[in-house]
Amino acid sequence: MASGGLFSKQRTFRPKKKWERGTLKYELHKRAKASLNAGLDLKNAVALPADEDANDWIAVHVVDFFNRINLIYGTVGEFCTESSCPVMSGGPKFEYYWADEVQKKPQKLPANQYVTKLMEWIEKQINDENIFPSQVGTPFPKTFLATCKKILTRLYRVFVHVYIHHFDKLIAIGAEAHINTCYKHFYFFVTEFKLVDPKEFEPLRDMTARICR
Ligand SMILES: [Zn+2]
């Protein structure tokens, strides 16, 4: 693991997870993308197509959001340092502590270390064939939805941190419209399938009300 600036270029632009061509997940990924490109209303674009399995639909979106949010954080990563962000937070009222299978007791971490752990943890889940099977006919585990909820909840915190602490940088590089679109897509998706506890939306409540009408 890189030390110091945890999000070195190499870490920041971690390889995207891709579905293999010819698999159902790949087709679904393309389909989801096509409906977005067709200018379909984001709120309609997230709805489960009539002939599709909800788990497959959720799996491709989770991977897609992971790839996109990872890139968004990457664009501000160099400004998110241990001195600028000594704790993973969303303003003074919201702090997030890290816990996982190894670190059982929630731990206070600088935001960049927290996000690194978060992205690595998600990467591990989505690359685990037992959790995210890529082949048609391989059943999803019973824990699949619970895992997706946890992944999406954690990804949401990256939005919270980036919007509240680094939005000026996103504006400076002209990425505001891009992150807003990604946020809206994410928000409509997780609310459509009730995948994130609404209390998580609290730090961005006003903004969400404004852009996700
Ligand atoms: Zn930061």
TrEMBL record:
> What is the designated name of this protein?
MOB kinase activator-like 3
**Species, as recorded:** Amphimedon queenslandica
Question: According to the lineage, what is the superkingdom?
Answer: Eukaryota
Keyword Repeat recorded? no
What UniProt keywords apply to this chain's record, in alphabetical order? Metal-binding, Zinc
> What SUPFAM superfamilies does its record include?
Mob1/phocein
Task: Extract the PANTHER family matched here.
Answer: MPS ONE BINDER KINASE ACTIVATOR-LIKE MOB (PTHR22599)
Q: Can you tell me which residues bind Zn(2+)?
A: 80, 85, 161, 166
User: In its keyword annotation, does this UniProt entry include rRNA-binding?
Assistant: no
